[in-house]
Amino acid sequence: MSTTRGFEKVINYVLELIQSGNLKIGSELPSERQLTNILELSRNSVREGLRSLEDMGIIKSLHGSGNYISGSISENMQRSFESMILLRSISMKEIISFRKSIELSVYELAFENKNKTVYIEKLSVILKDFLSQPLEEQIKRDTKFHRLLVSMAENQILDIVMGSISKVYLDWVRDVLSDMDNLGMQHLHEAHLRIYKSLAEENKVEGIRAIEEHYSIIEKNVW
């Protein structure tokens, strides 16, 4: 019991330092010896707490240097999703369904963003001459479009979740778009345009419909 309380004390201490702003991404943590003295714990308890923080992607340990706030939670989530897919505990269909539900939440927040004008202009640039671009460029722009929507929501949790999911199925989406015919790509582009226009014209209902249509097109080309 004492060991469990000890490593949790380390985790809570580091999280409190982050919350207070005393530690930011790239900041070095106090040394193991300092944490041992500050928290009045054994070296083993401190090390166990640091290992847990590293497993969560909150810190990164550099041999011979120290422990630093890493901000790599998204990478850890990505690896978890990849492992679950390989182990067949979840399917790509479930990933797509989950991403759709998250993107609907993202859109709601993006729509309410009072400073969304700058983002809308960037969406316009991404969509310009979309269909005339080579396939690889279309895939890059599609990724940028959805990432920009997430940025517009200005929610770090959604940003982390969407980022980790996007990395998992990027190659899969590339295969789907490669196999999609011109009509399918045109419909996908039209859905993007409708999402963009819904934000520019303050039409939330149309935007939600466009996102639903976007994922319907993807699903039709897979299942």
From TrEMBL:
Keywords, sorted A to Z: DNA-binding, Transcription, Transcription regulation
Pfam families linked to this entry: FCD, GntR
InterPro entries: GntR_C, TF_FadR/GntR_C, Tscrpt_reg_HTH_GntR, WH-like_DNA-bd_sf, WH_DNA-bd_sf
Domain of life according to the entry: Bacteria
GO molecular function: DNA binding; DNA-binding transcription factor activity
Keyword DNA-binding: yes
Residues in HTH gntR-type domain copies: 4-72
Keyword Hydrolase applies: no
SUPFAM superfamilies, per database record: GntR ligand-binding domain-like, Winged helix' DNA-binding domain
PANTHER family tied to this protein: GNTR-FAMILY TRANSCRIPTIONAL REGULATOR, TRANSCRIPTIONAL REGULATOR, GNTR FAMILY
Protein name stated in the entry: Transcriptional regulator, GntR family
Protein species of origin: Catonella morbi ATCC 51271
